[in-house]
From TrEMBL:
It comes from Nocardioides yefusunii. InterPro entries: DUF4437 (IPR028013), RmlC-like_jellyroll (IPR014710), RmlC_Cupin_sf (IPR011051). Residues 258-283 are annotated as: Disordered. This is DUF4437 domain-containing protein.
């Protein structure tokens, strides 16, 4: 299980040599969150030189999202906000990354191990997908999930129909609000790509990262600018709402049974130095 990380700006992480076996070039990584039990990792990569890796097989479900710069996959150049997904055990083609490129990189249910020129695993599911969000239309969240008081807008980058694991872009118009407290039966992870949001946990601008394990309460959101996040969940997202909230996790359950889906009591999570100390009047 990963630790709860609440609104840490990327500037407050330190650089490490990147763990990208089989590749050639100089790459640094910031470890946004890591599961020390199964090796799952959420990483920010910065390529100091051109980098390349030959075709092979990743040992974890693998995702790349281009923040800036470009990558070339199987001869196709991918630019800003384009997305590559490779299931564990599925062969992927050669990958090249231009110097100066910044990527978000996720490895789920496995480590960084990579078998060059490997063959497809017998139990592998799915295929490699390349997605350009510019080719997709924004769709209202009301088409996907019940609960929001006003719609957000989604572009689905990846969805596993067997586990309901997904990665998607979510856009909130300026002035969007969610005054209730929320928690979910699955984990929720996001990185802010554009805009700024206020909440009980503080302000979240571009480069702000959060990882919430299941049943961690959060809320009282308001967007000060049009805001776009890339969000991942390890299952179907349900919004459990609490009103009349008190202290950190008390209140009146609205649409869930607190015996089945209890909000998890939590100490204060790690805090971003850029954001400043916790304000007990808002935390």
């Amino acid at each position: 299980m990963r630790a709860h990380v609440e609104m840490i700006n990327e500037a407050d992480y330190v650089w490490h040599p990147a763990e990208l076996p089989g590749g050639t070039g100089e790459v640094l990584e910031k470890r946004l969150s890591v599961d020390e039990e199964d090796g799952s990792s959420s990483l920010l990569l910065e390529f100091e030189t051109d980098w390349s890796r030959p075709a092979g097989v990743p040992h974890a479900d693998t995702e790349f999202f281009v923040l800036s710069g470009s990558i070339t996959y199987d001869g196709t150049v991918m630019g800003e906000w384009e997305y590559l997904h490779v299931p564990a055990g599925v062969p992927m083609a050669e990958l090249r990354v231009a110097a100066g490129t910044r990527l978000l990189h996720w490895r789920e249910y496995g480590t960084s191990r990579f078998t060059v020129a490997g063959e497809r695993w017998n139990d592998a599911r799915g295929d490699v997908t390349v997605t350009n969000p510019a080719d997709l239309e924004w769709k209202s969240t009301l088409e996907f999930v019940e609960g929001p008081l006003s719609p957000l807008y989604i572009k689905m980058l990846h969805h596993d129909p067997e586990t309901n694991f997904y990665t998607r872009l979510i856009k909130a118009p300026v002035g969007w609000e969610e005054p209730r407290m929320l928690h979910h039966p699955v984990y929720e992870e996001y990185f802010t790509l554009a805009g700024r949001t206020e909440s009980l946990h503080g302000d979240a601008g571009i480069g702000t990262y959060t990882f919430r394990p299941s049943h961690i309460k959060h809320g009282h959101f308001q967007t000060k600018e049009e805001t776009i996040w890339i969000i991942r969940c390890d299952g179907a997202l349900e919004n459990f709402h609490t009103v009349d909230s008190w202290i950190e996790w008390g209140g009146t359950a609205v649409n869930y049974d607190p015996e089945i889906h209890p909000p998890r009591p939590s100490t204060l999570p790690v805090r971003s130095a850029s954001t400043g100390p916790w304000d007990p009047r808002r935390a």
